[in-house]
Amino acid sequence: MGMKQVLILGASSDVAMSLARKYAGEGYDILLAAREPEKLEDDASDLRVRFQSEVTLLSFDVLEISAHDRLVDELPRLPDVVISVIGLMTDQTEAETNAKAAQLMMRSNFEGPSLILARFAEKFRTRGTGTLIGISSVAGERGRRKNYIYGSAKAGFTTFLSGLRSSLHGAGVLVITVIPGLLNARMYKYCENPKFLVASPDEVAYAIFKAQSKGREVIYTYSIWRLIMMIIKFLPEWLFKRLSF
To answer: Distance between CA atoms of 200 and 205, rounded to whole angstroms?
Structure first.
């Protein structure tokens, strides 16, 4: 059967590349799926040389729902791990006034990632093994005025992963929800990031691989985020809506 294999969906992101390096370093072959996989040729070559891993580039647009079955069915073999790093954060003000911008953010963060992971879940259930990993966000834990459209989509994705985990209980399939908090990554250019709360893509990749190795199901990149979000979730509504964040 060969080496273990990980499929990374949304492979053009900073976190995706850190994940590719981490898993390659742990002996995995790598499948990188992105809308423009040709732009990843240099990264793929680096992974092959540095880690002697087999690296395959795949064309995949998560918003093209008809492409989901094609991706799953045309893989030479079913991967051991599937990680969704797919996400999109656009400007909140634009999304409030532009329905297409809002729809794009909702579909990119919830609909597309949920549906493709559901397809792999079917296959993994039948096989009886596998790991499904979805990167959500602390923004999905309570709606904030500065990013509630993005946050609402991530809330849906977090709930989806929780339900999928329950559905696959006893089937030999691990489902991991990753809640990284703030990231030093391109997608977060619209955020004001306090440095002591910001994780690097490499830190996120390390935390994800560690969670998989230990069989953990819900992780925060920094444990302080679990406390922060617990406090935020329990703030009374009258107080929360008066806060500026």
So the answer is: 9
